[in-house]
Specification:
Length: 401
């Protein structure tokens, strides 16, 4: 079965084309700068050969036309005709309270997703554009939506509620939803697979540390708490997002700076986090470079980033009554040995002890990095959300047939 996985952002479309039965990625790529000057498609063949197409990609539909065009082109493609695509799986950020798992996309599902635009105004509209484009261009091919929120549906109410008037939860759905769910699901399951243990028997904490960052408590295979909330702004310190902050400080800043909700949202989502503290960059590599040169704010940002994660690990160990496995993933989690040390230092009391040498050598590959005999298995597991989306899509479409 050949499955096209699509991840539509506001001005980009990432794609991967799988032949799952053969465990092959036939092609992958990205369309960038949609609707802007200098838009292009970067395509990578299975052989690793890369092709660049520049063109006027005015909207997501044209972007997807480019992708379908190259997949089926005689020169650079990997299929003779679009009929060879059996299904399309989409990453959809917000599934609200409605979707606890991936679903086949029907008219009814689309209507519900339209309703959720209010909950995720930045993310769900481009996701929907991708769905509409496929529907228009290859209407007979089944489509599946895989939600970032779905894995967290198992959170108990006491973990997902905010302590605000209950009526606001009922009226507007104000609660914690959590995000990065596909990643937390993948890495927690994969970690158990590598260890040869049944996920239903262990307590896992997963730390997805990239530009966006979140932690998740996975007890016996189910998410029971996660650090992102009503939006992906809550929780850990991120590249440009503040993470947890006192609401009192937010309203104070808005008053003092005379800014409205839109500007405040930009301030806390785009100008805060590592970028806000360092004033230099949101990229951890540049911040580590700055710290090495002695930049005090880079050193501070690193300490704050690690400390916030350490606190969440402690909190989730308490929430689950223990921890057996700690997993690092995402660009920083997979690649930065220094960050992993910074986080795990002083967590020996929980049984978290990393082997410094193995950790140092571990970069971007699956690896157990805890000390031999340590109580908690600490692991690096590169995330693979696209593969999860492809597998869910295959399962749902096969089930239907
Ligand atoms: P992601 O959003 O998962 O792509 O992760 C992006 C973050 O990962 C950025 O802060 C990068 O600086 C960081 N990152 C990527 N590669 C490395 C690396 N080799 N070492 C340290 N950090 C990295």
């Amino acid at each position: 079965m050949k499955i096209l996985v699509i991840n539509c952002g506001s001005s980009s479309i990432k794609y991967q084309f799988y032949s799952l039965d053969e465990s092959r990625i036939l092609a992958k790529g990205i369309v960038e700068k949609i609707g802007m000057k200098g838009s292009f498609l970067k395509h990578e063949k299975e052989s690793g050969q890369k092709v660049l197409f520049e063109g006027e990609i005015l909207d997501h539909k044209i972007g997807i036309e480019y992708i379908l065009g190259i997949l089926s082109s005689a020169k650079h493609g990997c299929i003779a005709s679009l009929d060879e695509i059996n299904a399309v799986g989409h990453r959809v950020v917000h599934g609200g309270e409605e979707f606890s798992e991936s679903v086949l996309i029907t008219e009814e599902v689309i209507q519900t997703l339209e309703k959720f635009i209010e909950l995720a105004p930045l993310h769900n509209p481009p996701n929907l554009k991708g769905i509409y484009a496929i529907k228009a261009l290859i209407p007979d091919i089944p489509q599946v939506a895989v939600f970032d929120t779905a894995f967290h549906h198992t959170m108990p109410q006491h973990a997902f509620m905010y302590a605000i008037p209950y009526a606001l939860y009922k009226k507007y759905g104000i609660r914690r939803y959590g995000f990065h769910g596909t990643s937390h699901r993948y890495v927690s399951n994969r970690a158990c697979e590598i260890l040869g243990v049944d996920p239903k028997t262990v307590k896992v904490i997963t730390c997805h540390l990239g530009n966006g960052a979140s932690a998740c408590a996975v007890k016996y295979g189910e998410s029971v708490d996660t650090s992102m909330g009503f939006t992906p702004l809550e929780g850990l310190i991120m590249g440009t997002r503040s993470g947890d902050i006192d609401m009192g400080a937010v309203s104070y800043i808005m008053d003092k700076e005379k800014i409205g909700t839109k500007s405040a949202s930009v301030l806390f989502n785009k100008h805060s986090g590592l970028l806000g503290i360092t004033g230099i960059s949101s990229d951890s590599r540049e911040i580590y470079a700055g710290a090495e040169k002695g930049d005090e704010r880079c050193k501070l940002a690193i300490k704050m980033f690690d400390y916030r994660i350490k606190k969440y690990i402690g909190a989730y160990a308490a929430a689950m009554g223990g921890v057996d496995v700690l997993v690092f993933t995402g660009g920083i989690g997979e690649n930065s040995a220094t960050t992993r040390v910074g986080i795990c230092e002083e967590l020996g009391f929980l049984g978290i002890e990393i082997d410094k040498q193995i950790n140092k050598e571990s970069r971007g590959a699956e690896q157990i990095i805890s000390k031999e005999g340590a109580k908690v298995k600490v692991m690096v597991v590169p995330t693979n959300e696209e593969l999860m989306i492809a597998i869910d899509t295959q399962n749902i479409v096969y089930d239907k047939n």
